[in-house]
Design goal:
The protein is built from ten helices and ten strands. The protein is α/β, with parallel strands linked by helices. The longest helix is centred in the C-terminal third of the chain and has 15 residues.
Length: 248
């Protein structure tokens, strides 16, 4: 590995440089396994010799043994994984006007986005559409939290106001998750429904709220007064589960 390559790979921790170099990294054997099943273009696999031996001989010409010191410099983690893949950054596809879609309104926490992707894939959702200010899909924490499902489920970025307008023109119903609204346990979901999850602190923006067809809520069954809402990825999982159950 040249010093220039090392410098580039180490810079991929930051969105600016991922975009500049057209690359991102994936860490850990299990996640790389899922990556290798996808159509994404692998550039290089770095690691210790015993870790590289676990990767199919199909990728032999892309394997490169490097020292633990070098791995630590490249890695996003405090304790570097023993294997890292460098991957070409894909051009994300445009969204489709389909039901069973989740809209993400300015979510900032990468762990939340990764968990939502993993959950949506589990419950058979068609896609996720993120607002343009949402956390980057190729942030390593998103990839880690998704456990590789980021390579299986279609995710795109777009202006949500335009998306919602297009969805409604195509007879899709757009729901928003709020503290107050119709209980998801009474609500009659259809295959033509999509729902919005809002920012961790601010919730769904006023601009998006004004375009929604219906507000839904997860009832609070606690006997005490709770002012805090559910974590957004937990809320997403509950809605995904209930919606999928109703559509069986």
């Amino acid at each position: 590995m040249t010093n220039n390559e090392l410098k580039i790979y180490a810079s991929l921790k930051h969105k600016k440089f991922r975009k500049e170099h057209g690359l991102f990294m994936v860490e850990g054997y299990k996640t790389i396994e899922e990556l290798l099943k996808s159509d994404l273009k692998l550039i290089k696999v770095l690691g210790a010799s015993n870790a590289l031996d676990r990767i199919s001989d199909k990728w032999t010409n892309l394997k490169e043994q490097v020292s633990s010191k070098t791995m630590q410099r490249i890695s996003n983690m405090k304790s570097a994984s023993d294997i890292i893949a460098i991957v070409q950054l894909p051009i994300l596809e445009n969204y489709d006007c389909l039901g069973k879609t989740i809209l993400i309104d300015d979510i900032q926490d990468p762990g939340n986005l990764g968990t939502i992707i993993r959950t949506a894939h589990w419950f058979g959702f068609n896609q996720i559409i993120c607002s343009e200010k949402s956390v980057d899909l190729f942030n390593y924490k998103v990839i880690q939290a998704s456990m590789g499902t980021v390579f299986k489920l279609k995710v795109s970025y777009a202006n949500l106001e335009n998306v919602i307008s297009n969805f409604r023109k195509n007879n899709l119903r757009v729901l928003g998750t709020f503290m107050n609204g119709e209980s998801i346990y009474n609500f009659k979901f259809t295959e033509q429904d999509v729902f919005v999850l809002g920012n961790e602190g601010k919730g769904i923006s006023r601009e998006v709220e004004g375009l929604l067809d219906q507000k839904i809520t997860i009832p609070n069954f606690s006997k005490g007064d709770l002012t805090e809402s559910l974590n957004i990825s937990i809320a997403g999982a509950v809605v995904c589960s209930e919606m999928s159950k109703r559509l069986l």
